[in-house]
Write a structure and sequence with these properties.
- It is a single chain.
- This protein has 277 residues and is α/β, with parallel strands linked by helices.
- It is built from twelve helices and nine strands.
- The chain has a single domain, classed as Rossmann fold, CATH 3.40.50.150.
- Strands 1, 2, 3, 4, 5, 6, 7, 8 and 9 form a nine-stranded mixed sheet that branches.
- Bound molecules: S-adenosylmethionine (SAM).
């Protein structure tokens, strides 16, 4: 178990801004968590006014993380690099993976100081497995790849699941988002998997751009992308069935049932898993 904190010397409390909304804390509010400030709740309530199904959408997104983790563990994968982890919300990815394979190893990465402050909750590995946390920014993939916690936890000669669930829409420039995925995924061996979900405006063209506007005005650039743009991240990979679908339609199971009758517009997150052939 280890917690990496890349190159920051300021005390943690000084890095937690309570005057501007943070995407991780707004997401926690939508999920029904407790780690948010008034400024996050106000921004989140503005989102709920224009997109009343946001709570169902983020629950469907989080459930996709759990299902894809179970599916990949069931296919024999044992290592995860999860970037944009979010404030710990049980069950976290390692709890799901280790529920199937107790020896699973998971490295978490997020750039939000609140996630760092709560990262102890991610350090609850089984004795057979291992978890680590890196305080890092996905826009600096070289630093993530060079982190000692990564080398100590994952064997990059063996297949790894690179998961960036509800993250790449916070990288506005698609060329930069591609460069990030390439830098992180290209070195991984065959059999490695890319797990992504991404917000879109295609399914609710009236509501989703209003959500985007609220995030952008709050200082977090949210870039909604089309299905076609989302598909470009999987070029050269073999998409697992059912391909690119809205998050709640990806391999639904009875372990983790979602509310019935959810529509694509209500979810508005594309999701897919691609495997390196
Ligand atoms: C919407 S939450 C998703 C949490 C989790 N992956 C899930 O789907 O349940 C997005 C997370 O990405 C993090 N994030 C945003 N930009 C980031 C960046 N540039 N580098 C690392 N993490 C980032 C936020 O702090 C937040 O915790």
């Amino acid at each position: 178990m280890s917690t990496g904190d890349l190159g920051h010397e300021e005390p943690l409390s000084a890095r937690i801004r309570q005057d501007v909304p943070h995407s991780a804390r707004m997401y926690d509010y939508f999920l029904g968590g407790k780690d948010h400030y008034a400024v996050d709740r106000e921004a989140a309530e503005r989102v709920l006014e224009v997109f009343p199904d946001m709570r169902s959408a983020v629950q469907a997104n989080r459930a996709f993380m759990r299902r894809s983790t179970r599916v990949m563990a069931g296919r024999g994968l044992r290592q995860w690099l999860d970037i944009g982890t979010g404030i710990p919300t049980s069950p976290n990815l390692h709890e799901v993976a280790q529920g199937v394979a107790p020896d699973a190893r998971v490295v978490y990465v997020d750039n939000d100081p609140v996630v760092l402050a709560h990262s102890r909750a991610l350090m609850t590995s089984t004795p057979e497995g291992r978890t680590a946390y890196i305080h890092g920014d996905v826009r600096d993939p070289d630093t993530i790849l060079a982190a000692p916690e990564l080398a100590r936890t994952l064997d990059l000669d063996q297949p790894v699941v690179l998961s960036m669930v509800a993250l790449l829409h916070f990288v506005p420039d698609i060329a930069e988002a591609h460069a990030i995925v390439d830098r992180l995924f290209k070195p991984l061996p065959r059999g490695s998997a890319l797990v992504l979900s991404h917000a879109t405006a295609e399914l609710d063209p009236a509501g989703a751009p209003k959500v985007q506007e609220i995030y952008n005005r709050a200082g977090t650039t949210l870039q909604l992308r089309t299905r076609q743009e989302f598909a470009t991240f999987f070029e050269g990979l073999t998409l697992l069935e059912p391909g690119i679908v809205t998050a709640h339609r990806w391999c639904p199971d009875d372990i983790d049932p979602l509310p019935e009758g959810l529509t694509d517009a209500q979810v508005s997150f594309y999701a897919a898993v691609g495997v390196k052939p």
